């Protein structure tokens, strides 16, 4: 089980002080948060990709490459890589380069994004969103797995005898999660390839999330990748903690009430009841997170959103200290004890490399016995 944090990179006014950090301050704060995540024993730091205010994470590989140079264990990921508006050739090259720089500590999450205007900014039509996701990812897989690619599709110029460089580290492409909140086609895509499926359920009721994950699991089994409960699932979550639960509620309420996404909507209490948002004590977060397994089955990755809505960096770092010292150790122990032996752990570069070597050895053995 992997635990980590993801950032949407919003630059939002602190409603308690009226202060808004600069873009530069926010970018450097995200780096500080990633370093803190490794310090407190988390496994993953993931950044979103946005190309519009109030967000600043327009170049995930630049940020993750910088963080890679300052960490040694942390898995560097994205909480969205825009498969629809990025060129698959550039994705193939950028993330292979990051793989080498980070010694394999890299995976990424493909997504269509939730900002409609981004499509024409990059020369695409939002009405082609699903088709772009399907075609671009099919090309990306070939670019990582074939040394020379001839290709022709509907949304970019053809390729003739093209080799993406650098090649993936050790010949093993980064593991891919497909992130979707509402599109069954993306769950189907993840299942078809045997990739991971990440449901960022921070805004959605449990029943919707369960239906999407169950669809992915059924189709994963249908395509012969393993039993349904062996499918690779990740979940989002959103927490704010203090030792006393009422203190947490009182402190977080103004940030919730004014958040750019859900502010001025449902009450904090209603939102907490209907979605995975947990504002309270560390024990409440532990119990709520363990409850995800009961609803969605065994899963491999849990990422928490903790640095949004104008929360000051000092507060976010305090939250990470609590998460790393009081919450994650308990969750690790409990999830590991509950997970059946046949359910796989989250893929890493090391495990994927070992699997590729086993497959190659088996293939060589079969050739010699023919």
Automatic annotation (TrEMBL):
Concerning Pfam families, the annotation shows: Bac_luciferase (PF00296)
Q: Does the keyword Transport apply?
A: no
Q: Which UniProt keywords apply?
A: Monooxygenase, Oxidoreductase
Which portions of the sequence form the region Disordered? 346-370
Q: Which InterPro entries match?
A: Bact_Lucif_Oxidored, LLM_FMN-dep_put, Luciferase-like_dom, Luciferase-like_sf
Domain Luciferase-like: start-end pairs: 1-294
SUPFAM superfamilies linked:
Bacterial luciferase-like
NCBIfam families from the xrefs?
A: LLM_CE1758_fam
PANTHER family referenced in this protein's UniProt entry, alphabetically: BLR5498 PROTEIN, LUCIFERASE-LIKE MONOOXYGENASE
Return the protein name. LLM class flavin-dependent oxidoreductase
Specify the species: Kribbella alba
Q: What is the lineage of its organism?
A: Bacteria, Bacillati, Actinomycetota, Actinomycetes, Propionibacteriales
């Amino acid at each position: 089980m992997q635990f980590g944090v993801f950032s949407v990179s919003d630059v939002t006014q602190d409603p308690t002080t009226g202060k808004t950090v600069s873009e530069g301050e926010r970018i450097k704060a995200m780096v500080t948060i990633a370093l803190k995540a490794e310090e407190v024993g988390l496994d993953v730091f993931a950044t979103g990709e946005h190309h519009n205010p109030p967000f600043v994470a327009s170049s995930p590989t630049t940020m993750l490459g910088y963080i890679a140079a300052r960490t040694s264990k942390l898995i560097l990921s994205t909480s969205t890589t825009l498969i629809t508006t990025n060129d698959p050739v550039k994705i193939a090259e950028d993330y292979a380069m990051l793989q080498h720089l980070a010694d394999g500590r890299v995976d990424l999450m493909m997504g269509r994004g939730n900002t409609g205007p981004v499509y024409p900014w990059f020369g695409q039509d939002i009405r082609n969103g699903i088709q772009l996701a399907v075609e671009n990812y099919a090309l990306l897989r070939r670019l990582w797995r074939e040394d020379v690619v001839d290709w022709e599709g509907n949304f970019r110029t053809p390729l003739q005898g093209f080799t993406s460089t650098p090649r993936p580290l050790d010949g093993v492409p980064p593991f891919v999660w497909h992130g979707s909140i509402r599109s069954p086609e993306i769950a189907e895509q993840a299942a078809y390839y045997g990739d991971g499926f990440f449901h960022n359920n921070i805004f959605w009721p449990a029943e919707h999330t369960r239906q999407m994950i169950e669809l992915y699991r059924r189709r994963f089994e249908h395509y012969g990748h393993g039993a349904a409960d062996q499918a690779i699932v990740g979940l989002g979550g959103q927490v704010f903690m203090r030792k006393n639960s009422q203190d947490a509620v009182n402190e977080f309420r103004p940030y919730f009430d004014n958040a750019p996404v859900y502010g001025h909507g449902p009450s904090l209490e209603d939102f907490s009841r209907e979605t995975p948002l947990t504002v309270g004590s560390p024990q409440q977060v532990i119990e709520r997170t363990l409850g995800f397994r009961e609803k969605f089955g065994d899963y491999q990755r849990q990422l928490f959103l903790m640095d949004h809505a104008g929360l000051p960096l000092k507060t976010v770092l305090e939250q990470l200290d609590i998460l790393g010292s009081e919450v994650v150790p308990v969750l690790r122990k409990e999830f590991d004890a509950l997970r059946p032996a046949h359910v796989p752990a989250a893929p890493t570069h090391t495990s994927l490399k070992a699997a590729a070597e086993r497959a190659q050895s088996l293939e060589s053995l079969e050739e010699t016995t023919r």
